[in-house]
Amino acid sequence: MPRGRYSLHDPHDHTPLADEHFHCAPGPSGWRYVSQLTTPSGDHSGSVDLALDELGRPIRLELHAGGWQVRGAALDGVTWVRTDPAGAHATEGNVRAHAFTGTSPAFLIATTRLLNLTPSESATRVRLVAFTDPVLAPRTVDQSWALVKREAHATDNGPLTVDEYQVTALDTGEQHAVHIAGDVVLAAPGIELEELESPPSSFA
């Protein structure tokens, strides 16, 4: 069960945003990721709880940030309920999309599990609902993902397979690389792996 800490920062000016203390593990029904977020000053700022089925589909998502809460799942596309900090209003949303995304590294792992790509030059298009900080506002985004390289690196615990993905935002054409080993993000825009207490889990 990997356990560790990511640091999150603005990918453009590198302003520190949060630390995400996480643990995750594959299970008989899929994969689960749980994390707590703290501000650079150490205050609690939110949480992520994401569970996937064996095909990588989100069977449960719960996000907290700035007093806002989102609960969602794959249902007729993806469906979610967003509740305001006062708890007085809850709005439901539904989009013909494949899955969710957001600032947490969990969503990068989830997308790779859903797409299950093999190394190839060709890209696969995916529609996602992004929940943007700080109020978890939903926004539909279209991306393309390609697994451009898979390399094995020698470590003290045996070979570690690292996948390099090229991700393209289809509305702007902006491209970036994401490096993933098992169920841990090694590097991505705005994300740095700072601590890892045990090796990544490998998916069968």
Strand order in the largest sheet: 8-7-6-5-4-3-2-1-15-14-13-12-11-10-9
Number of helical segments with 4 or more residues: 1
The H-and-E topology, N to C, reads as EEEEEEEEEHEEEEEE
Which residues sit in consecutive blocks of at least 5 with pLDDT less than 50? none
How helix-rich are the residues, as a percent range? under 10%
Oligomer state of the chains in this structure: single chain
Q: What's the structural domain tally?
A: 1
What Rg do the Cα atoms give? 16 Å
What is the number of E strands? 15
Mean pLDDT equals 94
- Biggest sheet descriptor: 15 strands, mixed
Give a summary of the structure in a few sentences.
This is Glycolipid-binding domain-containing protein. This protein is mainly beta and 204 residues long.
Characterization of the model:
By secondary structure, the protein is mostly beta strands. It has one domain (3-198). 5% of the residues lie in helices and 60% in strands. The chain has a 15-stranded mixed beta sheet with strand order 8-7-6-5-4-3-2-1-15-14-13-12-11-10-9, with helices on one face. Strand 6 (68-74) and strand 7 form a beta hairpin. The mean pLDDT is 94. This is Glycolipid-binding domain-containing protein.
Keywords:
1 helix, 204 residues, 15 strands, mainly beta
What is this structure's SSE topology?
Layout: E1 3-9, E2 16-27, E3 30-38, E4 44-53, E5 58-65, E6 68-74, E7 78-83, E8 90-95, E9 99-101, H1 105-115, E10 124-132, E11 137-153, E12 160-169, E13 175-181, E14 184-188, E15 191-196
Parallel strand pairs: 9-10
Antiparallel strand pairs: 1-2, 1-15, 2-3, 3-4, 4-5, 5-6, 6-7, 7-8, 10-11, 11-12, 12-13, 13-14, 14-15
